Amino acid sequence: MDKKEEELLSMHYQIEKTDIKQQKFEDRLKSISEDLKKSKRIRNMYFVLIIGLILLMIAGSFYLIQNNMIFPSDAPSVENSNEMKKLLMINDSLQQEVQKLKEGISEEMNSTKDSSEAYMYDSSGSRIVVANDSIGSDKDSLNKSKRKFKRQYGYVKKAFKSNDAIFVEVDFIEFYKGRLAVKKAKEYGEAEYDIDKKGDTLYFLYNNYYIHNKNSSSRILELDDKVRVKIDKINQISNGFPLKAFQKIILDQPVLILETNNDIVYKISQQKLL
């Protein structure tokens, strides 16, 4: 009997011990469940708060845009920008004219330079060399007034030799660059355009230049004996004009600059388009 009682007591003890462990485990599960519920509530609160802030920012931005507080339309600034564009175009055209005048004056000074000398004698019989500026001054001034220097753009259609003289057949054109090119292309209805978000029309050119051929008729001009050629593919080593090389170049119809004096071409250079 004693052994059976001991066994029963030990079994009761183990059962009670198991019940205690189970109770602790259930309590632990309850606490974990409550912690999870609390963290879920906090996460939901943060999510709602973030969504509310985003909606508030969107509403504020929409309100500012509707009231023109962001990106306001500033008409005076647009007018000022248009005035600046006009001034820049005028400046470009004036720079081109000044450059033409400078080149014409420099060529005229080089061509009219007189290297002749006159001699005078002092009382001792020694000869003094003086510049011959006064001799023939009336004749030089008359020649200067008759000279006509021009600098023109054109396509050379033909180059040929006749009676020991070289001639070129030229189709003169109008060549513009930069803002002036856009302005001229717009005048002739050949400018590209786009409409921005505000509904304004923006004119532009894919290339930075514009060519207008007002009159397609060509002229025949004679080349000076000492004409200078400045083209990338032509090396003018000798004094003679490289006629064959020049005839190959003009097949591609490059834009050439012809500088003339009384319709005699004394310089040919190529206008680079890029």
List keywords for this structure.
two-stranded antiparallel ribbon, 2 domains, five-stranded mixed beta barrel, 274 residues, 27% strand, 5 helices, alpha+beta, 10 strands
What's this entry about, in short?
With 274 residues, the protein is α+β, with helices and mostly antiparallel strands. The chain contains five helices and ten strands. It folds into two domains: 1-72; 75-111 and 148-270, no CATH class.
Radius of gyration: 46 Å
Q: Provide the spatial order of strands within the biggest beta sheet.
A: 3-4-8-10-9
- Range of helix content: 40-55%
- In one word, what is the shape? rod-shaped
Alpha-carbon distance between the two ends: 118 Å
Number of E-type strands: 10
Count of distinct structural domains: 2
The SSE order reads: HHEEHEEHEEEEHEE
Q: By helix and strand content, what is the structural category? A: alpha+beta
How would you state the average pLDDT, rounded? 77
Strand content: 25-35%
Uncertain residue ranges: 73-78, 112-139
| Count of DSSP H/I helices | 5
Main sheet: strands, sense, barrel: 5 strands, mixed, barrel
